[in-house]
Specification:
The chain has 286 residues and is mainly alpha-helical. It is 69% helix and 0% strand.
Protein backbone atom coordinates (compact mmCIF):
# COMPACT_ATOMS: atom_id res chain seq x y z
CA UNK A 1 0.00 0.00 0.00
CA UNK A 2 1.53 3.29 -1.08
CA UNK A 3 0.92 6.67 0.52
CA UNK A 4 -0.75 9.33 -1.66
CA UNK A 5 1.49 12.36 -2.16
CA UNK A 6 -0.05 15.63 -1.09
CA UNK A 7 -0.21 18.31 -3.84
CA UNK A 8 2.43 21.00 -3.57
CA UNK A 9 0.84 24.35 -2.78
CA UNK A 10 1.53 27.03 -5.39
CA UNK A 11 4.24 29.49 -4.41
CA UNK A 12 2.99 32.66 -2.89
CA UNK A 13 3.22 35.65 -5.08
CA UNK A 14 5.71 38.04 -3.61
CA UNK A 15 5.13 41.54 -4.93
CA UNK A 16 8.17 43.41 -6.08
CA UNK A 17 9.17 46.15 -3.67
CA UNK A 18 8.28 49.62 -4.80
CA UNK A 19 11.46 51.60 -4.53
CA UNK A 20 12.51 54.69 -6.42
CA UNK A 21 16.20 53.98 -6.25
CA UNK A 22 18.98 54.19 -8.78
CA UNK A 23 20.18 50.76 -9.91
CA UNK A 24 23.68 50.05 -8.54
CA UNK A 25 25.04 49.63 -12.06
CA UNK A 26 23.63 52.97 -13.11
CA UNK A 27 25.14 54.64 -10.05
CA UNK A 28 28.49 52.96 -10.80
CA UNK A 29 28.45 54.39 -14.33
CA UNK A 30 27.43 57.85 -13.10
CA UNK A 31 30.20 57.82 -10.51
CA UNK A 32 32.69 56.61 -13.12
CA UNK A 33 31.89 59.58 -15.37
CA UNK A 34 32.38 62.01 -12.48
CA UNK A 35 35.66 60.37 -11.45
CA UNK A 36 36.87 60.34 -15.07
CA UNK A 37 36.53 64.16 -15.22
CA UNK A 38 38.10 64.57 -11.79
CA UNK A 39 41.17 62.68 -13.03
CA UNK A 40 41.38 64.98 -16.06
CA UNK A 41 41.47 68.01 -13.76
CA UNK A 42 44.01 66.33 -11.49
CA UNK A 43 46.36 65.46 -14.37
CA UNK A 44 45.96 68.90 -16.00
CA UNK A 45 46.13 71.53 -13.22
CA UNK A 46 45.99 74.39 -15.75
CA UNK A 47 42.34 73.48 -16.38
CA UNK A 48 41.57 74.80 -12.89
CA UNK A 49 42.33 78.36 -14.04
CA UNK A 50 38.65 79.24 -14.34
CA UNK A 51 37.96 77.77 -10.89
CA UNK A 52 40.69 79.46 -8.82
CA UNK A 53 42.25 82.34 -10.77
CA UNK A 54 39.52 83.84 -12.92
CA UNK A 55 37.07 84.35 -10.00
CA UNK A 56 39.73 86.28 -8.05
CA UNK A 57 40.54 88.45 -11.09
CA UNK A 58 36.85 89.28 -11.55
CA UNK A 59 36.44 90.23 -7.89
CA UNK A 60 39.51 92.47 -8.00
CA UNK A 61 38.44 94.12 -11.27
CA UNK A 62 34.81 94.88 -10.43
CA UNK A 63 35.37 95.44 -6.73
CA UNK A 64 38.12 98.00 -7.35
CA UNK A 65 35.98 99.71 -9.98
CA UNK A 66 33.15 100.02 -7.48
CA UNK A 67 35.43 101.43 -4.80
CA UNK A 68 36.87 103.96 -7.25
CA UNK A 69 33.43 105.15 -8.38
CA UNK A 70 32.32 105.42 -4.76
CA UNK A 71 35.41 107.52 -3.92
CA UNK A 72 34.49 109.96 -6.71
CA UNK A 73 31.16 110.54 -4.99
CA UNK A 74 29.19 109.21 -7.94
CA UNK A 75 27.75 106.31 -5.98
CA UNK A 76 27.49 105.23 -2.41
CA UNK A 77 28.33 101.92 -0.80
CA UNK A 78 25.37 100.39 -2.63
CA UNK A 79 27.26 100.73 -5.92
CA UNK A 80 30.12 98.59 -4.60
CA UNK A 81 27.63 96.04 -3.28
CA UNK A 82 25.83 95.90 -6.63
CA UNK A 83 29.10 95.17 -8.43
CA UNK A 84 30.34 92.55 -5.98
CA UNK A 85 26.98 90.79 -5.60
CA UNK A 86 26.55 90.84 -9.37
CA UNK A 87 29.93 89.29 -10.10
CA UNK A 88 29.53 86.75 -7.29
CA UNK A 89 26.21 85.49 -8.62
CA UNK A 90 27.37 85.71 -12.22
CA UNK A 91 29.96 83.09 -11.32
CA UNK A 92 27.14 80.72 -10.31
CA UNK A 93 25.80 81.10 -13.84
CA UNK A 94 29.24 80.97 -15.45
CA UNK A 95 30.66 78.04 -13.50
CA UNK A 96 27.57 75.87 -13.99
CA UNK A 97 27.48 76.57 -17.72
CA UNK A 98 31.18 76.16 -18.39
CA UNK A 99 31.48 73.00 -16.27
CA UNK A 100 28.81 71.10 -18.23
CA UNK A 101 29.89 72.47 -21.62
CA UNK A 102 33.59 71.71 -21.18
CA UNK A 103 32.69 68.34 -19.67
CA UNK A 104 31.17 67.36 -23.00
CA UNK A 105 33.93 69.10 -24.98
CA UNK A 106 36.47 67.01 -23.09
CA UNK A 107 35.14 63.97 -24.98
CA UNK A 108 35.54 65.89 -28.25
CA UNK A 109 39.10 67.05 -27.52
CA UNK A 110 40.23 63.57 -26.49
CA UNK A 111 38.55 61.92 -29.52
CA UNK A 112 36.55 59.84 -27.06
CA UNK A 113 33.09 60.57 -28.42
CA UNK A 114 32.94 57.45 -30.60
CA UNK A 115 34.03 55.26 -27.69
CA UNK A 116 31.45 56.90 -25.47
CA UNK A 117 28.65 56.28 -28.01
CA UNK A 118 29.40 52.54 -28.01
CA UNK A 119 29.40 52.06 -24.23
CA UNK A 120 26.38 51.02 -22.14
CA UNK A 121 26.34 54.51 -20.58
CA UNK A 122 23.11 56.28 -21.44
CA UNK A 123 22.86 59.97 -22.22
CA UNK A 124 21.20 60.86 -18.95
CA UNK A 125 23.76 58.87 -16.93
CA UNK A 126 26.51 60.80 -18.66
CA UNK A 127 24.72 64.11 -18.06
CA UNK A 128 24.23 63.35 -14.36
CA UNK A 129 27.88 62.29 -13.97
CA UNK A 130 29.20 65.43 -15.62
CA UNK A 131 26.64 67.50 -13.71
CA UNK A 132 27.84 66.12 -10.36
CA UNK A 133 31.43 66.94 -11.18
CA UNK A 134 30.36 70.36 -12.45
CA UNK A 135 28.48 70.99 -9.22
CA UNK A 136 31.68 70.36 -7.27
CA UNK A 137 33.46 72.92 -9.50
CA UNK A 138 30.63 75.43 -8.96
CA UNK A 139 30.88 75.09 -5.18
CA UNK A 140 34.67 75.43 -5.29
CA UNK A 141 34.66 78.42 -7.64
CA UNK A 142 31.94 80.18 -5.70
CA UNK A 143 33.85 79.57 -2.47
CA UNK A 144 36.90 81.27 -3.98
CA UNK A 145 34.81 84.27 -5.06
CA UNK A 146 33.14 84.59 -1.65
CA UNK A 147 36.47 84.45 0.17
CA UNK A 148 38.09 86.96 -2.20
CA UNK A 149 35.19 89.44 -1.85
CA UNK A 150 35.26 89.16 1.92
CA UNK A 151 39.05 89.31 2.20
CA UNK A 152 39.60 92.25 -0.17
CA UNK A 153 36.44 94.33 0.33
CA UNK A 154 34.78 92.99 3.53
CA UNK A 155 31.70 92.12 1.50
CA UNK A 156 29.68 89.06 2.46
CA UNK A 157 27.20 87.65 -0.04
CA UNK A 158 25.43 86.03 2.90
CA UNK A 159 24.06 89.48 3.76
CA UNK A 160 21.49 88.72 1.04
CA UNK A 161 20.05 86.16 3.46
CA UNK A 162 17.66 83.38 2.47
CA UNK A 163 17.03 85.06 -0.89
CA UNK A 164 20.41 83.67 -1.92
CA UNK A 165 18.96 80.14 -2.05
CA UNK A 166 16.21 80.61 -4.69
CA UNK A 167 18.24 83.14 -6.68
CA UNK A 168 21.32 80.89 -6.72
CA UNK A 169 19.17 77.89 -7.73
CA UNK A 170 17.65 79.84 -10.61
CA UNK A 171 21.08 80.87 -11.89
CA UNK A 172 22.41 77.31 -11.51
CA UNK A 173 19.57 75.90 -13.63
CA UNK A 174 19.96 78.73 -16.14
CA UNK A 175 23.66 77.91 -16.56
CA UNK A 176 22.97 74.21 -17.12
CA UNK A 177 20.19 75.07 -19.58
CA UNK A 178 22.46 77.34 -21.63
CA UNK A 179 25.08 74.58 -21.77
CA UNK A 180 22.48 72.26 -23.36
CA UNK A 181 22.20 74.68 -26.28
CA UNK A 182 26.00 74.80 -26.57
CA UNK A 183 26.25 70.99 -26.60
CA UNK A 184 23.46 70.77 -29.18
CA UNK A 185 25.25 73.25 -31.46
CA UNK A 186 28.55 71.35 -31.14
CA UNK A 187 26.74 68.13 -32.10
CA UNK A 188 25.20 69.84 -35.12
CA UNK A 189 28.04 72.05 -36.39
CA UNK A 190 31.12 70.30 -35.04
CA UNK A 191 34.05 71.44 -32.95
CA UNK A 192 34.04 74.93 -34.47
CA UNK A 193 31.01 75.75 -32.32
CA UNK A 194 32.98 75.27 -29.10
CA UNK A 195 33.75 79.00 -28.98
CA UNK A 196 30.17 79.46 -27.77
CA UNK A 197 31.06 77.66 -24.53
CA UNK A 198 33.03 80.75 -23.46
CA UNK A 199 31.40 83.47 -25.53
CA UNK A 200 27.68 82.98 -25.10
CA UNK A 201 27.59 84.14 -21.48
CA UNK A 202 29.30 87.40 -22.40
CA UNK A 203 26.25 88.09 -24.57
CA UNK A 204 23.90 87.18 -21.74
CA UNK A 205 25.92 89.17 -19.18
CA UNK A 206 25.09 92.75 -20.31
CA UNK A 207 21.54 91.87 -21.34
CA UNK A 208 20.85 90.41 -17.88
CA UNK A 209 21.81 93.64 -16.14
CA UNK A 210 23.99 91.96 -13.58
CA UNK A 211 25.29 95.34 -12.31
CA UNK A 212 22.48 97.73 -13.30
CA UNK A 213 18.70 97.81 -13.87
CA UNK A 214 17.13 97.19 -17.26
CA UNK A 215 16.43 100.92 -17.66
CA UNK A 216 20.15 101.54 -18.13
CA UNK A 217 20.21 99.49 -21.34
CA UNK A 218 19.49 101.03 -24.75
CA UNK A 219 15.75 101.17 -25.36
CA UNK A 220 15.87 98.72 -28.26
CA UNK A 221 17.48 96.03 -26.06
CA UNK A 222 15.22 96.39 -23.02
CA UNK A 223 12.43 94.03 -24.30
CA UNK A 224 15.04 91.30 -24.88
CA UNK A 225 16.47 91.84 -21.41
CA UNK A 226 13.06 91.53 -19.76
CA UNK A 227 12.53 88.13 -21.41
CA UNK A 228 15.67 86.64 -19.83
CA UNK A 229 15.12 84.86 -16.50
CA UNK A 230 18.57 85.92 -15.34
CA UNK A 231 17.52 89.58 -15.52
CA UNK A 232 14.85 89.04 -12.85
CA UNK A 233 17.27 87.06 -10.66
CA UNK A 234 19.82 89.90 -10.59
CA UNK A 235 17.04 92.48 -10.10
CA UNK A 236 15.90 90.50 -7.05
CA UNK A 237 19.41 90.62 -5.58
CA UNK A 238 19.60 94.41 -5.90
CA UNK A 239 16.19 94.82 -4.25
CA UNK A 240 17.28 92.68 -1.30
CA UNK A 241 20.53 94.65 -0.96
CA UNK A 242 18.45 97.86 -0.88
CA UNK A 243 16.65 96.49 2.16
CA UNK A 244 13.38 95.66 0.42
CA UNK A 245 11.41 92.52 1.38
CA UNK A 246 11.87 89.31 -0.56
CA UNK A 247 10.81 90.12 -4.17
CA UNK A 248 8.80 86.97 -4.80
CA UNK A 249 7.37 88.37 -8.03
CA UNK A 250 10.85 88.73 -9.54
CA UNK A 251 11.91 85.31 -8.25
CA UNK A 252 8.74 83.73 -9.68
CA UNK A 253 9.39 85.31 -13.09
CA UNK A 254 13.00 84.08 -12.99
CA UNK A 255 11.97 80.54 -11.96
CA UNK A 256 9.22 80.32 -14.58
CA UNK A 257 11.55 81.55 -17.30
CA UNK A 258 14.23 79.07 -16.22
CA UNK A 259 11.79 76.15 -16.46
CA UNK A 260 10.86 77.15 -20.00
CA UNK A 261 14.52 77.55 -21.01
CA UNK A 262 15.40 74.20 -19.42
CA UNK A 263 12.69 72.35 -21.36
CA UNK A 264 13.71 74.15 -24.56
CA UNK A 265 17.33 73.16 -23.96
CA UNK A 266 16.42 69.50 -23.37
CA UNK A 267 14.31 69.41 -26.52
CA UNK A 268 17.06 71.10 -28.53
CA UNK A 269 19.87 68.80 -27.44
CA UNK A 270 17.67 65.70 -27.94
CA UNK A 271 16.77 66.89 -31.45
CA UNK A 272 20.40 67.62 -32.30
CA UNK A 273 21.46 64.22 -30.94
CA UNK A 274 18.88 62.52 -33.17
CA UNK A 275 20.18 64.45 -36.20
CA UNK A 276 23.75 63.62 -35.15
CA UNK A 277 22.98 59.90 -35.26
CA UNK A 278 20.85 59.93 -38.39
CA UNK A 279 23.40 61.85 -40.50
CA UNK A 280 26.47 60.11 -39.10
CA UNK A 281 28.14 63.26 -37.80
CA UNK A 282 30.26 61.06 -35.55
CA UNK A 283 32.79 60.96 -38.41
CA UNK A 284 33.61 64.60 -37.62
CA UNK A 285 34.88 63.61 -34.19
CA UNK A 286 36.81 60.42 -34.95
Amino acid sequence: MTATAEPTPPPEHIPAPLAFTVHPRRWTRIRAIAIRHAYVLKRSPHRSFDVFVWPVVDVLLWGSLGVFVAQQGEAGQSGVEYLLAGILLFHVLYQSQIALSTGFLEEVWSRNLLNFMTTPVSEWEYAVGVGLFGLAKVVTGLGVVVLAAFGFYAFSIFDVGWALLPIGSVLLIAGWSISLFVIGLVLRFGQSAEVLAWGILFVVMPLSGIFYPVDALPTVLQPISVLLPTTHAFAAVRMVLDGDPMPWDQIALAAGGCILVAFAGLWFVAHMLKTFRQRGYITRFS
